[in-house]
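Hey,

The postdoc asked me to send both predictions to you directly instead of through the lab channel. I've kept everything plain text so nothing gets mangled by the mail client. Protein one:
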Amino acid sequence: MKFTRKASANWRGTGKEGSGNISTESTVLNNAQLSYKTRFEDGIGTNPEELIAAAHAGCFTMQLSFLISEAGFTPENLDTVAHVQFEDGSINLITLELSGAIPGISNEEFEQLAQKAKEICPISKLLDTEIHLVTTLQELS
């Protein structure tokens, strides 16, 4: 399978006083605000690190779902929160916090599949940084 996705960004002004926007081909993001405040402070809008976190959480969780299904289980729920750490001009750490509810799976198999998903997810492979994984398997009643 081969495909291309695209997004665009526009910026006007200096790095600190300027502002811009980001749009995606799907229009999920359509001129979403981007500024110094949205990236380095608490401004309204988005930023590259938040978008990387969203992309990584989505890619990893979908990859894990495929692996769990291939192992013969059906996930009831998978929740992933990706924390992207920016320090001294670099993204130096991503922590994936995973919680899953999967009938019949052992904690050991869940952790093994999650680790494999972390390693083979296309976004994980793209990122040149340390990636931590924290898993929680929920007990089903």
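Protein two:
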Amino acid sequence: MRKNLLRLGVTMAGAVGLSLGAGTAFATPAGPGVTGKIISQTTFDGKDYILRQITIPPGQSTGWHYHDGTLYGFVQHGTLSHFDSGCKADGVYKAGGGLTEPSGANHVHIGRNLGTTDVVLDVLYVLPHGAPLSEDAPNPGCDFQ
């Protein structure tokens, strides 16, 4: 429990410092082998704070999605390529880097692992209480999924 609280604290501290960035997450339909494990969660003042570790194997993606709240991520391993609904890369995040994803359906995106090793992310979700982790979105017309 102490380790999880420390991890949550480090992620939250990083999130405050990274709040000007842009970022990533996880949604279905994700590629084969993409996994997410909840590390810790709590609810405070009408918001759910969920710390989750996400692993994206080489050649896979999160699927197109958006979030009802803000996400703060930290890349533990690998390189995450992030694309917006205009099919343009809006960030490449390497191990040790952080990212922020804004909320709302006008921020549809996909995270892709274009590398040869797993991407491992620690992601802090700050969501309205009871909201899903992500909302699926159709491919906006990009030639990749």
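Summary for protein two, as requested: The two ends are 37 Å apart (CA to CA).

Thanks,
C.
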